[in-house]
Amino acid sequence: MDPAIVKLRAVRKALRSLDLAGLLVPNGDAHQSEYLAERDKRREWISGFTGSNGTALILNKPESAHLWTDGRYIFQAGKELNPDLWTLHKDEASQIGEFITKTLNPGSRIGVDPFHISNSQYQRLEMELHAEKFRLIPLERNVIDEVWGESQPPMPNQPILSLGIEYTGMSLIDKVSFFREEMKKKKCGCLILSDLAEIAYTFNLRGSDIPHNPVFFSFAAITYDDVYLFLTDPELLDIPLNGVIIKPYNAIGEFIKEFKSSSDCKIWFSEHASRGLIANIPQENNKIISVNPVSLKKAVKNETEMKGFVNCHIRDAVALCRYFAWLEKEIVKKEVDEFQASQILDSFRKEMDDFVGTSFPTISGSGPNAAIIHYRPKPGKSKVLTRNDIYLVDSGGQYKDGTTDVTRTVHFGSPSDRIKECFTRVLKGQIRLTQTVFPKGVKGYALDSIARSSLWQVGLDYAHGTGHGVGSYLNVHEGPMGISKRYNSYDPGLEKGMVLSIEPGYYEDGNFGIRIENLVQIVRADTENNFGQKEFLTFENLTLVPIQKKLIEPTMLSSDEVAYIDDYHTLCKDRVGPLLRELGLKEALNWLIRETEPLG
């Protein structure tokens, strides 16, 4: 029998024993991580869908299984889900409540693991269901884990390494002092950290419990008197943490209850904290749920961190120049498929100083596969690169001094006029947004349309956000800020020192895909006026990889846009060229010189 059928039958049997009409399986772990350890890929295990965003709903009566995901993954999910077992729902997970109330009978009970859903998501769904006389049930045990059984991978237990102040620019003591001052402003006596990147940042530690993310499983708490770190095993630390009280990982819930019982002070939780964690404090007036000071401090890079970003992007560009120079020659001489190409790129990065690992699985897509926004090539099942197809590669590295994320779209033959027009419209959006000047505090959603405007003029668009924050040797996707069509109530507004991506694109299913992505830092803009004594800001490129001129239709560009491209290419050549010469990488240097010649 099909293993997928066996899994669903076992889940439904468990639901009947719990008197549940359905089971909600969000994409997440106890820390609401975007990328997951193997043991936490519960939604992937039950559905077969490997994308990083999606929510599954398994119903008992009627027997059916459903998955919701966003526009980035619709095409991929359609290929990965078994249509005989699963129904794919386009659009947003916010439709789940409405779907449940229209599909099931009033009084039906829907179960969910409260530690794998954020408190805000839980409350929103609970209100939707309660209004129609349905019930959302927080489960004491995880149904998927029970069905998965002994074959479920164990919890990762990797070494935890300290990161020196030459990389972080700020000590644990100074960070804690800053956070305590922010706690006093909120009249809060305890700050609970559940986001793994926030914990790694605070303690100047890095791990490898989750692929591509240098984090480790933990919780943390900061009070006015003490600092606590909750670990699976304290022996994993490479150095002792002076002044830090180490407690067992699973003791966080009991700690919260004990603190509340002995103090009248409020406890501060992140807006992304799980329902299970926050439920330890049932009284609403005893807790604060909002963006915490760690998230905001982490988002604004200090001088040391920003210097690291600049330097690691030079080294990262060396790897990419080598890669494109190599690829141009190899596809003429022999067959190279998408997966093999991605492995070569990874190998070039590994040779760079302070390289630790990739920042996400490399997206290497040719022709129609380039239209799959988060396509992952597989060994033995990848398309061979040809001179007739467009090729999109989205990749990044984790370095001790920073994190990179860059997308380039290239063509090794003669691109069609249609592809050149679409590419140039994407490029125009990239240029327009990068050159935008805006006052401090502007929300990312207010800028999003600037990157889309050239596409909108001819009725085109793309189904993903325009930009995301990036951590400093931390997660490649970092909040709370971002650039997207969606309004984000937690967005604090853009300010100097933040690092974001700008990555417009265009995709035609089954045909081709285009994306151009640079990381940028926010810097002070040199403006003639200063209305309202506001600080005006703009973006400055960190990524230093040439944009392929072959794909550009020059007649569609203004003289200012041509000048921008030429200036950007001069910057790439001036910053990356010296290191290529120093390393004796002649072929890559020649490629860089050729690709940065003036467009005019």
Automatic annotation (TrEMBL):
<comment type="similarity">
    <text>Belongs to the peptidase M24B family.</text>
</comment>
<feature type="domain" description="Peptidase M24">
    <location>
        <begin position="314"/>
        <end position="522"/>
    </location>
</feature>
<keyword id="KW-0479">Metal-binding</keyword>
<dbReference type="InterPro" id="IPR032416">
    <property type="entry name" value="Peptidase_M24_C"/>
</dbReference>
<dbReference type="InterPro" id="IPR000994">
    <property type="entry name" value="Pept_M24"/>
</dbReference>
<dbReference type="InterPro" id="IPR036005">
    <property type="entry name" value="Creatinase/aminopeptidase-like"/>
</dbReference>
<dbReference type="GO" id="GO:0070006">
    <property type="term" value="F:metalloaminopeptidase activity"/>
</dbReference>
<dbReference type="InterPro" id="IPR033740">
    <property type="entry name" value="Pept_M24B"/>
</dbReference>
<dbReference type="InterPro" id="IPR029149">
    <property type="entry name" value="Creatin/AminoP/Spt16_N"/>
</dbReference>
<keyword id="KW-0378">Hydrolase</keyword>
<dbReference type="Pfam" id="PF16188">
    <property type="entry name" value="Peptidase_M24_C"/>
</dbReference>
<feature type="domain" description="Peptidase M24 C-terminal">
    <location>
        <begin position="535"/>
        <end position="599"/>
    </location>
</feature>
<feature type="domain" description="Creatinase N-terminal">
    <location>
        <begin position="8"/>
        <end position="138"/>
    </location>
</feature>
<dbReference type="InterPro" id="IPR001131">
    <property type="entry name" value="Peptidase_M24B_aminopep-P_CS"/>
</dbReference>
<dbReference type="Pfam" id="PF00557">
    <property type="entry name" value="Peptidase_M24"/>
</dbReference>
<dbReference type="Pfam" id="PF01321">
    <property type="entry name" value="Creatinase_N"/>
</dbReference>
<dbReference type="Pfam" id="PF16189">
    <property type="entry name" value="Creatinase_N_2"/>
</dbReference>
<protein>
    <submittedName>
        <fullName>Uncharacterized protein</fullName>
    </submittedName>
</protein>
<dbReference type="GO" id="GO:0005737">
    <property type="term" value="C:cytoplasm"/>
</dbReference>
<dbReference type="InterPro" id="IPR000587">
    <property type="entry name" value="Creatinase_N"/>
</dbReference>
<dbReference type="GO" id="GO:0046872">
    <property type="term" value="F:metal ion binding"/>
</dbReference>
<dbReference type="InterPro" id="IPR050422">
    <property type="entry name" value="X-Pro_aminopeptidase_P"/>
</dbReference>
<keyword id="KW-0464">Manganese</keyword>
